[in-house]
Design a protein that fits this description.
The structure holds 3 protein chains of 3 kinds.
Chain A lengths: L1 E12 L2 E12 L3 E5 L6 H8 L7 E6 L2 E2 L5 H7 L1 E3 L12 H8 L8 H5 L3 H20 L15 H14 L4 E5 L7 H17 L3 E5 L3 H7 L2 E6 L2 E6 L1 H5 L2 H8 L2
Parallel strand pairs in A: 3-8, 3-9, 6-7, 7-8
Antiparallel strand pairs in A: 1-2, 1-4, 4-5, 9-10
Chain B lengths: L2 H29 L6 H17 L5 H24 L7 H23 L4 E2 L9 E3 L4 E3 L1 H23 L1 H11 L1 H6 L4 H26 L2 E2 L5 H14 L4 H21 L5 H15 L14
Antiparallel strand pairs in B: 1-4, 2-3
Helix pairs in contact in B: 1-5, 1-6, 1-8, 1-9, 1-10, 2-3, 2-4, 2-8, 2-9, 3-8, 5-6, 5-8, 6-8, 9-10, 10-11
Chain C lengths: L1 H33 L5 H26 L7 H19 L6 H26 L5 H21 L1 E5 L2 E5 L13 E5 L4 E2 L7 H19 L2 H11 L1 H6 L4 H24 L4 E2 L6 H14 L4 H17 L7 H17 L1 H10 L4 H5 L8
Helix pairs in contact in C: 1-6, 2-6, 2-9, 2-10, 2-11, 3-4, 3-5, 3-9, 4-9, 6-9, 7-9, 10-11, 12-13
The chains are: A alpha/beta, B mainly alpha, C mainly alpha.
Chain lengths: 252, 293, 359
Amino acid sequence: MEMLSVKNLGISFGGLHAVDSFSITVNKGELYGLIGPNGAGKTTVFNLLTGVYKPDMGQIILDGENITGRSAIEINKAGIARTFQNIRLFNNLSVLDNVKVGLHNDYKYSSIAGILRLPKYYKTEKAMNERAYEILEVFGLKEEANVLSANLPYGKQRKLEIARALATSPKLLLLDEPAAGMNPAETDELMETITLIRKKYDVTILLIEHDMKLVAGICEKIFVLNFGTELANGLPQDVLNNPEVIKAYLGE
Amino acid sequence: MSFITYLINGISLGSVYAMIALGYTMVYGIAKMLNFAHGDVIMVGGFIIFTLMSSLGLSPVLAVLIAIVLCTVLGVTIEGVAYKPLRKAPSLAVLITAIGVSYLLQNLALLIFGAGSKSFTSVIPVPAISLAGGRIPISGETLVTIPVCIIIMIALTIFIKKSKTGRAMVAVSEDKEAAVLMGVNVNKTIAITFAIGSALAAIASALMFSTYTNLSSTSGAMPGIKAFIAAVFGGIGSIPGAMIGGILLGIIEILSKAYISTQLGDAIVFLVLIIVLLVKPTGILGKKIQEKV
Amino acid sequence: MKKNILKINKSTRNNMVTIGLIVIAYAICQSMIVTGNMSNLLQNLLVSLCYYSIMAISLNLTVGILGHLSLGHAGFMCIGAFAGAFFSKSMVNTIDNTFIRFTLAILIGAAFAGLFGVIIGVAVLRLRGDYLAIVTLAFGEIIKNVLNVLYIGYDKRGIHISAEDAMSLNLDESGVVIVKGAQGISGTPRDATFTIGVILLIISYLIIVNLVNSRSGRAIMSIRDNHIAAESVGINITKYKILAFSISAALAGVAGVLYSHNISSVQSSKFGYNMSIMILVYVVLGGMGNLRGSIFAAILLTLLPEYLRFLRDYRMLIYAIVLIIMMLFNWAPACIEWRKKFSFKNLLGSVFRKTKKEV
């Protein structure tokens, strides 16, 4: 069953095709890796999928729904959440509050209810708190719930970003270089966390990475992007041994 | 008064705004701060010239030259004492400090010269002329202001493009850290920027107060705000933007005051700014800074 | 959920402390007045301390919580002042009950100011940082300038508006001119009292803290901290920007109504960028996002020039120097080092304490 179906996606910046005829099909529950040399256009693909950029051509279908050209907010509501290459946390908010912002659209009450502290405020905040703590528990961040997110160590900040994205109950989770800047121990922990959330949450994952250990370790399929277009696509053992792929990374 | 006269007066006022705006935009582009006290440096310049001419009887040329020197010193001193220590501080903190400096200058002037406004004697000895058979009168001040401003702006543009210091200024404005790695002395470059901006302010004050001769401690504030608006209008950080923004602003102001309403002239200028920014959020020549996602 | 309860208690505790301090200060002032221990000078300033405090905390909502620099806040105060005064003056014979009339004036002032907050919020949606600041400055000046030339009166036929003079309103004999151009509105009933001012301050404070500690508040702060991330988790940036702007403006309107009912006359010329900047100084000195700090700073910096009166002509000069020194002291790295070395904990230090949450 297809979760994400992308056909001929493309965008140009000032005449340069950053992404060209990009097509991919990600099945429900799959963990798909997106790799390629620096500047290949991987983050641009993510930006296209999440509505940060509007594509010049092509279409994006999420779980049967055509979301091409929609805004970032609408796309999140449709079911895509992401993390960023450079961690984007709400630095002046606590760990708990970061997750609660992720829960914003699932636990609603009006601003008036908040200002006047009506019963709905207390009821909804309580439910939101419980859910937020649940999520933090999964990521091992429960102890740091009231710590300012900017004060977390790097590895935990990454986890928090993923936790926040998951709080939006997405169907598709896009992780942009989650292992960037991590040492081998932290990377192993990350791999465990990703495996855990796949089991616990019914979420499909598309993952950009440079760390081949992680990619080879957990990805079920791999898509190789080079110069904005497809270089290889398929099972890890095929893709990673593909001479063209090796050439692209290592040069002639 | 005909439309042409208003237009020319507008260009004249606009070129003064442009010179002041250059100071704002250069400092903003290079030191990344809004020097709120810039307008008050103009007021100080005006008072220096006034005092030198009326109390010491110096000639206009000498008075203006001394004012340029003193304003330059003032600008560099302010930078060194009040802004340099806060270079790593949040930009809002520097803004408030600049506001403090602005208050300081205004109140010093108030203390020394009193609250009443002085009548500035024009430093421009050129007589008025009349074109098109008397239908287009042009004041001597306007005749001098426009060419002076144009020459200075051309000189500044050449300086920025060709001289080592000029290119250092551009480097610091684009990437401070990289500039340091390239061997650029950032402190010196920023000081020079303030020096140039303040010198321009002194010249602008000589020209402006020669035309609009009311001089008091608050005379620099509104022109300063308008020049700041002009800089934003043209795209903050862009030197040609400051020039275009300034001249356009002057024209809009004079024409609005002439044809719509004297009292609402300023409001109309502000309204035009808002409309322009609604259409082009980074100003006329402003660079669209793509936020990297 | 024990941790959970403790956390809510911590911020609630903080708020109670602030309100407690306000109430205590009020009680002290009232007892001083009753026993004749308060100078006339200070008594006349009391209501102004209230409205400047409200201005400071409402601006903090825009600058510290939403993270947008606004240089036109005085414009909202102006609108509230005029709307409220217009209403009170027109209704002074129709509505006898001062309490009802003044409450309505407050609501009307807040509503009009809030409306302009929405307008300006919409106008600055696409603008970033300094461009946004200059547009708010421009709006503030436009409001001031337009009200400066506006004449508004009413008669049996309705409300008449003119931008030229009172005559062109063409009112009949029953007509009354309320807004008189540069002279503004005079003869407003002096309904504002210190007690009412303090109550309104506390209400305004509660509105803001309750907003901040709620879902909408978190959304607003997420926009401040990282608007791209906020969008990526589905926060409606437009809605929350406008919400913050309008509430901030409405509260400034309330401050305006206090103002115009305190000195019985109001002219728009008083509400230019000078006042906007003064309020901004209170917010920055008190700490962005720190509401208690804003109130302290507003009170301190309103009283300071008055108590420096003995310095007569030099007082504004001293004020400016004190401001510069305070800023350098607080933020210059050399001073921060020095302060860490000696770590003195006095009231000044704790008020201007920089935590990660501020600035």
